[in-house]
Structure formats: C-alpha cells, structure tokens
C-alpha cells in the first residue's frame, strides 16, 4: 500500500543569482516528523518559504494532503499571468501552521496583540489554548497575556516559543517550522521534541511536521524521515531507520586506510587512521581488515554525505 503524502512537490525551481533551488520530486510523508537537513545556504529556507506561501515566484507545483494544489507563478515579470491558489486557499491556510526565525511578528506588537491578530486570521485559533501554552512555555508576559511585553523586548528564544504557541493554539494538520531549534536553549530544544511528538500523537496519523535544521543532533530523537539538502538539491532522503540500514560508520587503522578509502563517503583522515561513512553493501571490505563497524547516527550520515557532495576536506 502506497504511503500518503502530506506534501508532494513537482519540479520546484527558484533561482537567486548563482544559486538555484532544483527539487524535481519532493515527498513529505503524512503522519510523521520530517527533518530538512542542510548547511546554511543549502536552500532550506527558500524551500520552506515556497511551501508556506511566503514566496510564489517559483516554477513548479506543490500539492497538499493529496487534494489541494498550489502552482508557482514563475519569474517576477510573469507574476500577473499566473494563478496563485486553487479555490482551497482558505481551507489550506487553516490547516497549515508556519513558524520562522527573525522578524515573524511586528516588533511593536504586544503578546496580547499577537493573540488578537491570530483570532482574526484563523477561525480555528483558541485564545484559551494559547494562554495555556504561553504559561506552559514560560514566556514572559507581565501579568500574563493581557498586558504582555512587546515583541521587541523578548529574546530570540522567547519569540520562537511565541510562534510555537500561536500554531499550537490552532487545530492544524501540518506544521512547517523553519529552524525552530536554532534560537532555543538545550532544555527548550528537548521540550520542542516533546511538543512535536505530542502534536503528532494527538493527530492519530493525520498530522505532519516538517522542520528544517542545520544541526540535527538535538532533534534526531524526534525525526522519523529525513531529507538531506545541499546546494539547492536533495542528495539523500528516507526514513531514519532505513538510512541507518543503508549506511555504516567504519573506522580503520592507518595501515588499512587504502583498502577502505575508495568506498568511504566524507572520510576523516589522521595519522592514526581513517573514519567515514560507507554503504552497507560494501561491508565485506571493512570486515576483511577487521575495521570497527558501527551504526551511524543521523547526524553522521548527514554530515558525511554533505562533505562528500561538496568535496570538503580537513
């Protein structure tokens, strides 16, 4: 039985100067937490902006929940000649929550004004639920939400927590989260993982989370599916457990490096030996020299593949 897709993108393309986002086929499985992993400048935010509707000046199409399709409007000069959304625009807006770093809210707004704006924008926003989450996440508000601080007075971490509170106060089917862990401290990153898992469990297979990150180590325990991006394109993807079956981490002594080096991806060499990722199909090579073989973490898989793709050496 074919798995349902919360998001399916086809031939998504966007160009900025010398940078080009080129994603022929994007699949985000429904009911899971999918991580979009890549270094800064890999194209993660560009793709997130396209999926969230922040950008429409791209080529290609995106289908949500296997029913509602959004068409890109191409280059800027052709914007007026393209359709933006199907007639499901309002329905999509209610079903999707989006968080982003930096200036998401107006800096002179208070938390109370954020709550009022959310009520006006979204029919499924719950004031009571919002206030509960603000208190649970320990967001400083000065006499709770009623006389809340201005956004400009909040730290980057508390601004992100406020965005999370806004989307969780709605009954959505999809969360798009651009670098949600970056401004958070380690404790709150752990809490974010709990929030994502609780959100998915409450949906009973209906809800999906798609988040981007350049450092997957803190979010690995909540990641079900991974999409690894480099230089505007997807270089690997799959369920995490399948990726850990596909690859192995191998460490060999210096005298054996020449035997395994041709099979390694993103290898790290020193005077003591060599360590790197290898496809499991080549495990016989590692076993023949009694190399140390381990199951890789998702972080090790992502970093090794990105190093291999870019040719980065150190």
Topology (SSEs and partners):
Elements: E1 5-16, E2 19-29, E3 33-37, H1 44-52, E4 59-64, E5 68-71, H2 89-95, E6 96-99, H3 111-121, H4 127-136, H5 156-168, E7 174-177, H6 186-203, E8 208-213, E9 225-230, E10 233-239, H7 240-246, E11 247-253, H8 257-260, E12 264-270, E13 273-279, H9 283-288, E14 292-294, H10 298-310
Parallel strand pairs: 3-8, 3-9, 6-7, 7-8
Antiparallel strand pairs: 1-2, 1-4, 4-5, 9-10, 11-13, 11-14, 12-13
Plain-language structure description:
This protein is of the alpha/beta class. The chain has 2 domains: 5-231, P-loop containing nucleotide triphosphate hydrolases (Rossmann fold), CATH 3.40.50.300; 242-310. 31% of the residues lie in helices and 28% in strands. The protein has 10 helices and 14 strands. It has a 6-stranded mixed sheet, sandwiched between helices. Strands 2-1-4-5 form a 4-stranded antiparallel sheet, covered by helices on one side. It has a 4-stranded antiparallel sheet with strand order 12-13-11-14. The radius of gyration is 22 Å and the shape is globular. The model is unreliable at 76-88 (pLDDT under 50).
Task: Give the overall form.
Answer: globular
Please give the largest β-sheet. Answer: 6 strands, mixed
Number of helices: 10
Number of E-type strands: 14
Q: Quick check: average pLDDT?
A: 88
The domain count comes to: 2
Radius of gyration: 22 Å
CATH superfamily of the largest domain: P-loop containing nucleotide triphosphate hydrolases
Quickly name the level 1 CATH class of the largest domain.
Alpha Beta
* H/E element order: EEEHEEHEHHHEHEEEHEHEEHEH
Derived from helix and strand composition plus strand pairing, the structural class reads alpha/beta
Flag low-confidence runs. 76-88
Please bin the fraction of helical residues.
Answer: 25-40%
Distance between the termini: 45 Å
Spatial arrangement of strands, main beta sheet = 6-7-8-3-9-10
- The CATH topology annotation of the largest domain reads as Rossmann fold
């Amino acid at each position: 039985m074919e798995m349902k897709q919360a998001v399916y993108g086809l031939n998504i393309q966007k160009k900025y100067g010398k940078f080009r986002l080129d994603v022929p086929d994007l699949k985000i499985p429904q009911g899971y937490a999918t991580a979009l992993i890549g270094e800064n400048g890999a194209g993660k935010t560009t793709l997130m902006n396209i999926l969230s509707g922040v950008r429409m000046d791209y080529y290609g199409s995106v289908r949500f929940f296997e029913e509602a399709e959004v068409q890109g409007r191409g280059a800027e000069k052709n914007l007026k000649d393209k359709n933006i959304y199907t007639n499901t625009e309002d329905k999509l807006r209610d079903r999707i929550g989006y968080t982003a770093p930096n200036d998401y809210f107006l800096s002179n707004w208070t938390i109370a004004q954020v709550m009022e704006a959310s009520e006006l924008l979204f029919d499924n926003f719950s004031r009571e639920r919002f206030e509960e989450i603000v208190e649970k996440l320990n967001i400083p508000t000065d006499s709770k939400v009623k006389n809340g601080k201005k956004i400009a007075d909040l730290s980057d971490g508390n601004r992100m927590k406020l965005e999370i509170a806004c989307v969780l106060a709605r009954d959505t089917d999809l969360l798009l989260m651009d670098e949600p862990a970056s401004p958070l401290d380690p404790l709150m990153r752990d809490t974010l993982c709990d929030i994502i898992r609780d959100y998915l469990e409450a949906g009973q297979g209906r809800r999906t989370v798609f988040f981007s990150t350049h450092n997957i180590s803190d979010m690995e325990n909540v990641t079900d599916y991974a999409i690894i991006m480099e230089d505007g394109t997807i270089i690997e993807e799959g369920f995490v457990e399948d990726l850990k079956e596909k690859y192995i981490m191998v460490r060999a002594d210096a005298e054996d490096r020449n035997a395994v080096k041709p099979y390694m991806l993103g290898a790290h060499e020193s005077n003591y030996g060599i360590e790197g990722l290898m496809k499991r199909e080549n495990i016989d090579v590692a076993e023949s020299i009694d190399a140390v073989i381990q199951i890789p973490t998702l972080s090790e898989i992502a970093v090794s593949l990105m190093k291999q793709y870019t040719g980065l050496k150190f």
